[in-house]
Design brief:
The structure is a homodimer. By secondary structure, chain A is of the alpha/beta class. Chain A has twelve helices and eight strands. The termini of chain A are far apart.
Chain lengths: 297, 297
């Protein structure tokens, strides 16, 4: 594919999800400038074929933001060194960060003040699917913005769910997914350690449960980390106080009681308070194991 | 297949799981006497080809028990009209009811007093897999008992996990599965109602989440009941206070804290207290919906 001007992308956030998006874009002929506050990630991305010279904002066609939270997202766009003011009109701003629907709406309004095209584009699927270009997107935005995002969505996704032009609807859907995902990780941790307490080893647990009605996507994805005692962060503990916090914040505003979500959040906070914040989120099992005096693999 | 004497089976409990086991046995040439306290289920089973004359216990080769709880199981075997005393020596007693490991051990000892062969054989998979002969078993028992159970297991299961000869190990594994299954049903209810509160309809919820990391076996199996407003019991609310009670009872004895399980149990108890005990367990969504003033489909 030709590397024409409309293929110039600035990708901010080269964590496990962002890095995969970047690789999928590179494979498909896009010019991608990768940015991350962690400079070694940026260098690694250049090694994969990312652009290694300074960004010229007027040549950028789309900005993709895949960072930890709302604060980082806002800072990138509108902070002291915010880029919104440097972007040319009609540049696409595609925010994949998990944020609240209200925040998405606020960012969209601020972007429209610069005549930028905002798309609310949270993702799901994990780092492997991200690297393969097989993410699931839950998007909302104007038809003009979605049209401009289409070539990016095409090469990075397996499925794109569209939730119309009301910015924030994609993020509302994402928060529901995160609610379930967070509960399921904590439930897996509760069950695998309960199993160990009953003499069922972790490997056998996965082998059996994955064939039974008790299985979940998260269980099959995260239990292997515990079995292999590999807590290098594919998705870190620190993500969950934030994401489940967003869920509970939305729920509270709607008078909705979410008791399982609250308990899952407590378990991740306990893990974080134990200094496990930067470990893989499967490390929430350590909270259960320590509480019951159980030895993990 | 010939209907020889060693194919005579007494099946007690013709609920959604037991009925399916019975049908799979009938398809494969077994003579099956079906019993249920609900006489219409018994008649329905005779309509499927079940034996319609009185059981002659000395001709029975195996008894399969698939009832609601420990009390019913014990009553069938050792109550005032208990059958253990009528069975010939070396008859197989296969208990598929969800019970605690301790109860399984107790029953096994009582059965051995009559020289009966006990097998701890809890199941997973739901009513559809049961009817197809594709259940998952988690079994423990002596090699003699397992050998005798093999022809039954062969025609009713997709997968048989063996946990050795320590009676109760199969039930320990089952309790871990139920822990997850119960949490996942309640989590699905929490999330689908939260979605409705955010303007995401139930059908769209299932369509999207089943493609995302938030999915679970239970979510995909139970959410359709809510979408179709079909609360006829495939698996009833009443099962959960019992099964999660078993889990928490085992956990407590081991000094294991299971906070998500406790909350899930509370939600099923609330449903039961609302008079929903005999509805499908997906009706736990009504607890959330009433609490938040949300209308289910």
């Amino acid at each position: 594919m030709s590397k024409s001007g409309d293929k110039n992308i600035l990708l901010v956030g080269l964590g496990s999800m962002g890095f995969g998006i970047g690789k999928s874009l590179l494979r498909n002929g896009f010019n991608v400038y990768g940015e991350d506050k962690n400079l070694s990630q940026k260098e690694k991305f250049i090694g994969e074929g990312g652009e290694n010279h300074t960004v010229i904002y007027k040549n950028i066609n789309a900005v993709i933001i895949v960072v930890l939270n709302e604060m980082q997202t806002k800072d990138i766009l509108f902070g002291d060194n915010g880029i919104a003011k440097n972007l040319k009109k009609k540049t696409l701003v595609m925010v994949c960060t998990t944020v609240s629907p209200q925040f998405a709406e606020e960012m969209s309004i601020s972007c429209s003040n610069y005549d930028l095209l905002y798309i609310d584009a949270p993702i799901s699927g994990g780092s492997i699917k991200s690297a393969e270009g097989n993410l699931t997107y839950m998007i909302s935005g104007s038809s003009e913005a979605i049209k401009k995002a289409r070539p990016i969505l095409d090469v990075t996704s397996e499925t794109v769910f569209e939730f119309g032009d009301k910015i924030g609807s994609g993020s509302a859907m994402k928060s529901i997914n995160q609610m379930l995902a967070g509960i399921h990780i904590a439930a897996m941790a509760e069950a695998i350690t309960f199993g160990i307490s009953q003499g069922i080893d972790a490997k056998r647990f996965l082998e059996v449960i994955s064939k039974c009605a008790g299985t979940s996507w998260m269980l099959e994805n995260r239990a292997p980390n515990i079995i292999n005692s590999d807590y290098s962060p594919k998705s870190s503990i620190n993500i969950w106080p934030k994401d489940l916090g967003i869920v509970l914040n939305i729920a509270e505003k709607s008078g909705f009681s979410a008791p399982l979500t609250k308990i899952a959040l407590e378990q991740f906070l306990k893990a974080s308070n134990k200094g496990l914040g930067n470990e893989d989120d499967s490390a929430v099992a350590k909270v259960y194991a320590q509480g019951a005096g159980i030895k993990l693999p």
